[in-house]
Write a structure and sequence with these properties.
It is a single chain. This protein has 295 residues and is of the alpha/beta class. It folds into two domains: 60 residues; 208 residues, 3-Layer(aba) Sandwich (Rossmann fold). It is globular.
Length: 295
Amino acid sequence: MQNDLVFEEQQYLADNPDVAKAVRDGLARSGRDHFLNYGLKEVRRGVALETYVQAHSLRGFTFRNFDPPAYLMKRVHGSPDASSYNAVGRRVGTEVFGRLMRLDRFGKAPIKICDFGCGPGRVLRHLYELVVDTGQNLTDFGFSGTDIDPEPITWAQRFLHQIGDFSVNASDPPLSFGAESFDFIYSISVFTHLPEEMQIAWIKEMHRIAKVGATLVLTTHGDTLLDGDARSNLADKGFVYVVGSGTAGLPEFYQIAYHSHKYIRDVWGKFFEIEKIISRGIAGRQDMVVCRRVR
């Protein structure tokens, strides 16, 4: 199989000067040899997705063998520590899975799942494992992840390709998916960071891609995270958007947003039936908003 590996030697060397130097210095036999021993665990330029898929199969690697690079974990998690990064991913994945299992069609009919704002698939990989552990037929599930940040999507395409499809979305709708594509949509730490006009536009887009009867799990920052004047301000306005230093690697509009439960019912309720709002229902911090598209 190694001889059949699709690999562009000259392109790899041209795009990775450090590897080219190692080959010249006799520290690596070839770009191909370097890739098979080191590069297939890294996000290297000059390598087709097909090559990663083939090489992972050749080495017997699955998505369980890989964690994102430290800078991506820090961007998503606030820390480059892989242990805590995965612990939170497992916890949130379990909480989302609890809502997925409540679908009437779970175990009875195919289910299409979308992670909106998936990053490098931290939650999706654990949700996938939980589905596997139930013994369900995986051909009855389709997993898709989308995110505004191309770097984690590139990583997910290469290292989580066994799980599902990953794509980059623009800062404004629409997504690339057709109308009524998904039975279950979840979005963790997205609506917690968008200005009001943008988050309403994305709520409308969630309505478009959700099937009638679909369940959505969305997260918000609630009033339990505020006190004093800030909490009173949220109670009066229902929505507060706080501009600070932002997050390195993400757009300037990615700040901190807070929603009151009344605001969610009044504004989001125009598009979805709000079934439940669970204070700190996600990882003991963000509020879990469970919605259903009924029309």
